[in-house]
Amino acid sequence: MASATSKSYFWKGFRDGTPFIFVAVPFGLLFGVFATEAGLTLVQTMAFTSTVFAGAAQFTALQLLQDNTPTVIIIISALAVNLRMAMYSASLTPYLGSAPMWQRAFAAYLTVDQSYACSIVRFEKEPDLSVPLRMAYFVGSVTPITPLWILSTYLGAVLGAQIPESWALDFALPITFLAMIGPMMRTFAHVVAALVAITVSLLTVVIPFNLGLLIAGCAGMVAGAQAELILERRKTRQ
C-alpha cells in the first residue's frame, strides 16, 4: 500500500513538473548552441551541463567566459546565482530533512527552480504528508525535466549553427523564471524582495562583469527579510 501511495505521488509530481519541459527543452538547446559557440567541446559541454545542472548559473558562467572575465569573478558570479539553491534547500529541510542521507544527497542534485517551485507548493498544501511521499513527489516533479535537459543540450551542441535564428530560443530563460516567480509572490515580503532586486539591478546595470546582479540579489534578500521581520513584529503587537 505504501509503495502504491508513493508511486501515486511520484506521478503527481511528474504531472506537475511536465509543463516545464516546454521551457527546459529550448533552454537546453540554447545552452548547447552557446557552449559550442564559446569554444567548448561536446564532452566539455555535456560534462558542464550534467555536473552543474543549473541553467542560470551555466549561462552566467558561459557569458562571462565569452567576455574574458577573470576566473575568480566567473566562479563568484556562478555561485552567487546559485545561492538561491541554498535558500531552496533551507526551505525544503523541514519537509525532507529526516530522509536518509543518500536520498537527501540525490535531492540536492535535483534541486532546481522547477522542482522547488512544484514541491514547496505541494508540501505547504499537504503538510501532513510523510517524508517518503514528499520525496516521491519531489523526484517525480523533476523527472520529466532532467533527461530532456541533458538531451536537448546535446542536440544544441551537435546541431549548433543549424538551428535557425527565427526559432528565438533565447525566450526560454525569461519565460521560465516568469512562470516560476509569478505563483510564488504569495506574501508582502516576496513582493518587496522582487521589487527591490529589480530596481537595484536597473540602477547598477553599468557595473562591469554583471556584478550589479549580485548586488541586486543581496539587496532583494535583505529587503525581503526586513519586510518579513516588520510584519512579524506587527503580528506580535496585535
Automatic annotation (TrEMBL):
The chain crosses the membrane at residues 20-40, 46-65, 72-90, 135-157, 163-181, 188-207. Its main location: membrane. This is Branched-chain amino acid ABC transporter permease. InterPro entries: Brnchd-chn_aa_trnsp_permease (IPR011606). It is a multi-pass membrane protein. Belongs to the AzlC family. It comes from the Bacteria. It comes from Ruegeria atlantica. It is found in: Cell membrane. The keyword Cell membrane applies. Keywords: Cell membrane, Membrane, Transmembrane, Transmembrane helix, Transport.
